[in-house]
Amino acid sequence: MNTSETLTNPGPGHRTGDDSNRFWPTRFWPTFWSLARPYWFSEERRAARLLFFAIVVLNLAIVWVNVMLNQWNGNFFNSLQDKNQERFYELIWQFTGWAFLYIVLVVYQLYLNQMLQMRWRRWLTEVWLARWMSESVHYRLMLKDYGTDNPDQRLAEDIKLFVTDTLSLFFGLLSSVVSFVSFVGILWVLSGPITLGGVTIPGYMVWIALVYALVGSVAAHYIGRPLIALNFAQEKREADFRYSLVRARENAEGIALYRGEPDERAHFTMRFRALVDNWWNIMKQQKRFTWFSAFYGQLAIIFPFVVGAPRYFAGEIQLGALSQISGAFGSVQQALSWFVDAYTRLASWRASIDRLGGFAMALQQVEEIDRPMLVQAAPRIELQDVIIGVPGRDLIHVQGVVIEPGHHTLVRGFSGSGKSTLFRVLARLWPFARGAAKAPDPQQCLFLPQRPYLPLGSLAYALSYPRASASFGDEAFSRVLDLVGLARLQPLLTAAEPPDGLATWSQRLSGGEQQRLAIARALLLKPQWLFLDEATSNLDEAAEQQVYQVLREHLPDTTLISIAHRPSVARFHHQQMRVVPGMQGELASLVIEPLGAE
Length: 598
Description:
It is a single chain. The chain is α/β, with parallel strands linked by helices. Helices cover 59% and strands 11% of the residues. It contains 18 helices and 13 strands. It has helices at residues 28-40, 45-81, 85-132, 137-140, 151-191, 204-224, 226-250, 252-258, 261-313, 319-336, 338-341, 343-368, 419-426, 459-464, 474-483, 505-508, 511-525, 541-554; strands spanning 194-196, 199-201, 375-377, 381-390, 393-398, 401-403, 409-412, 433-439, 445-448, 529-533, 559-563, 575-580, 589-594. The strands form three sheets. A six-stranded mixed β-sheet has the order 9-10-11-7-12-13, sandwiched between helices. Strands 3, 4, 5, 6 and 8 form a five-stranded mixed β-sheet that branches. The protein has a two-stranded antiparallel sheet with strand order 1-2. The protein starts with 27 loop residues before the first helix and ends with a strand.
């Protein structure tokens, strides 16, 4: 996929201030265009434009058939008025042909429209996923408040709504414009002139339709405007509620052990009530809007008959012409009332663009500004005049630290001193650091956090992550499981899910077993540098020593950098890197010392 056509910064079009209550904020169209343009100029542009052109042609053909049916309608009612039986049956056969053609056009218009929707949505999702999951962007989005709650919602639901509503609204508007152009001439001729106060108004039904639609559109905007902000809020509250349920499922054991079900239930209820309260507001606003739109639509049905009846009863037009006037007036009025009919969908569309625009802005901020400190690739670790911090404050000033390959190093320091943050800097994840740093290439490193990540899929895949399990044989899997004391899991290597019905391996295995599995992963992948951030903290002291012994014996060419608190781990390392607290407001520092020195 060519990702050079990226989704650009929507700039000030991002929802700010009172924009949520304005239908077309100052930068709405630039925001929309920045989201829509990339697909139509991507590597799929030819297929996309061909589909788009085909749908346009089908829409035009459908309008043409409607014009033909309007003419047929006049002839049909004239045949009834004239009691012309032969003409009546002839017109019935004509209707059969027009109806069949109309059905074919509608079916393929819908089919191609859905095809274009899915192709556009697939492309957008792949591009946005690539940006979100590249260079730790997904991680860095969580480190600051970018106003991007629930990225999963934006990638799944908002992209779908954006694509579906954009195409639906565009083709609806196109049909309305073409219908207006096609039927306004018919209505002008059929309605004839009217004289009011000595003034003759030609094509008076056209002017009535224009005024009727204009008044309706203005009223619709003022009545339905609150739906914009309400739809935006509803998307957020739905996503918040769904996320809280997913999080509870992922942490089911912890909740059960704490007997935290009442608190969780209260939390769910609070979020759901917020969702329901906003939904009630949407319902009330939609009720007001429906009162107006239903009255507006029903009046449009009878209105042309009332206005055209005097000419019919005066014998100036036939019944068929009156029927044609009604149909043409309805088509013109409906075309001019597109804004009224589409208002609720426009509100939803605007909300999805707001959320995607904000997400695009946050992605660009993370990609271009809040980037990790540059760490040059080198065969050793070297930190010179590096300041490491967290959002809002600095923690450590490293004036000069060097770790050579093969020098196993234990990192020590008080809780919260920045030991794990140092690992994040070396992993090229952390944007809140500055200075000159060198470290081995990420492909040569493996970082094991305290809480291992076990992906969905087979146990073999969880072991080999992030490499494909096919890269290793069953014998290699069995060997590393045996080395870390998990031989009992060997029969489950090909199972896609745990055998007892639990959803994931992280729920099936205890904390200690998960850490053993992560150690087995390291034994399988054989990195040149292995960083262990309290990666054995859930094991007892004897098991922890056994794990380190296995690592030293079976990964002789791997350099270990460990954060651990038990003194017994020290004997598996050559030196320690200690965080020394600063004095009188100074930053803490890092020093390399022989083990045992304090």
